[in-house]
Amino acid sequence: MITTAAASPVLDLALSDALAWEAERLTDIAAGRCASSALLWSCEPALVAPSRLGRLPGFAHACAQAADAGWPVHLRSTGGDLVPQGPGIVNLSLMWSAPHETAPSIEDAFHRLTAPIRSALSAVGVTSNLASVPDAFCDGRFNVAVAGRKFAGTAQRWRPTGGGYAVHAHAMMLMRTPDDAAIRALNRFYRDCGINRTIRASAHIGLADLVQLNERKAKQHRFLRIIADRAHSWSPPR
């Protein structure tokens, strides 16, 4: 059984460092300095919002209230909506160069992002599908869902280059179901921004709730190792 943190394939980073890494690698890909890159990471508790929310009149107040409650807010470049970060959440960042003649559709890119996640779930005995989940944070039709509840959320960013695109696909996966503190932080942020939306914990499910208690550590490690191996051996389509 895996019991040491050193064996984990997940890098524990400051959120600001993880977001900076993503921005730098996307710039490298856009400039032709590399063809693809991947990272599996986790970070401290925080809320991450798409840049469009930063234009709302109540955004500054919402950020101040969230930070006072222990949930500092960061903006990201990919699409989607407000999400929590922190212990119990693991992120997969995939980036690649997509020349015009071989560029996938947005739907194809989501399938490429979610394929290793669904394969890893299957390997630990969990059946999943892609579906929208009402009342989940950052809901979308390319959620990885288990039994009607959200296990992973996805987002993308496409950056035009001279010969095509630099693509950034991101998934955040729940190792544990979000607790009441995370749900309260999300809902308060929406209220402070003047957004009429309610997130419910019951719309989500973490890996810890999908496997037997005595198997949790071993199956979580196996799940993450499969994704890490697939991500780091992954190459962009030609």
Describe the structure.
The protein has five helices and ten strands. Helix 3 (106-123) packs antiparallel against helix 5. It is an alpha+beta fold and 238 residues long. It starts with 10 loop residues before the first strand and ends in a 5-residue tail after the last helix. The chain has helices at 15-30, 59-68, 106-123, 180-193, 216-233, and strands at 11-12, 36-42, 46-50, 73-76, 83-85, 89-99, 129-130, 144-146, 149-160, 164-174. 41% of the residues are buried. The protein has a seven-stranded mixed β-sheet, with helices on both faces. A three-stranded mixed β-sheet has the order 4-3-5, sandwiched between helices.
Query: What is the number of E strands?
Result: 10
Q: How would you describe the shape?
A: globular
Largest beta sheet: strand ordering: 1-2-6-10-9-8-7
Tell me the series of helices and strands, N- to C-terminal: EHEEHEEEHEEEEHH
Q: What integer value in Å does the Rg equal? A: 17 Å
What is the percent of helical residues? 25-40%
Helical segment tally? 5
Which structural category fits the helices and strands? alpha+beta
Question: What secondary-structure arrangement, pairings included, does this model have?
Answer:
Elements lengths: L10 E2 L2 H16 L5 E7 L3 E5 L8 H10 L4 E4 L6 E3 L3 E11 L6 H18 L5 E2 L13 E3 L2 E12 L3 E11 L5 H14 L22 H18 L5
Parallel strand pairs: 1-2, 3-4
Antiparallel strand pairs: 2-6, 3-5, 6-10, 7-8, 8-9, 9-10
